[in-house]
Amino acid sequence: MVEWLLDGLLVLALVVTAAAALWSAELFRAVVVFIAFGVLMAVAWVRLRAPDIALAEAAIGAGLTGVLLLDAVSHLGGKRRRAHKPGDGRQ
């Protein structure tokens, strides 16, 4: 019973972090939530008894990709994402 509760909470946390990363208005916050999603995904792979995939997810998904995205955000200066609106003069 406790295992089912843990798995349910893990799935809920994965869905919430994925939605938060997608709908975040600030780039830095979106990247941090994406890293948290990668860590949770690694835990999910451990629960599925796939430690090799969990290590790859933690190293590549949360670690390397997270660092590269944080570096990209720092080069952008923390600018907010804005949707392109027709006729606003931006290309």
TrEMBL record:
<keyword id="KW-1133">Transmembrane helix</keyword>
<dbReference type="Pfam" id="PF13244">
    <property type="entry name" value="MbhD"/>
</dbReference>
<feature type="domain" description="MrpA C-terminal/MbhD">
    <location>
        <begin position="13"/>
        <end position="76"/>
    </location>
</feature>
<protein>
    <submittedName>
        <fullName>DUF4040 domain-containing protein</fullName>
    </submittedName>
</protein>
<dbReference type="InterPro" id="IPR042106">
    <property type="entry name" value="Nuo/plastoQ_OxRdtase_6_NuoJ"/>
</dbReference>
<feature type="transmembrane region" description="Helical">
    <location>
        <begin position="30"/>
        <end position="48"/>
    </location>
</feature>
<dbReference type="GO" id="GO:0005886">
    <property type="term" value="C:plasma membrane"/>
</dbReference>
<dbReference type="InterPro" id="IPR025383">
    <property type="entry name" value="MrpA_C/MbhD"/>
</dbReference>
<keyword id="KW-0472">Membrane</keyword>
<keyword id="KW-0812">Transmembrane</keyword>
<keyword id="KW-1003">Cell membrane</keyword>
<feature type="transmembrane region" description="Helical">
    <location>
        <begin position="6"/>
        <end position="23"/>
    </location>
</feature>
<feature type="transmembrane region" description="Helical">
    <location>
        <begin position="54"/>
        <end position="73"/>
    </location>
</feature>
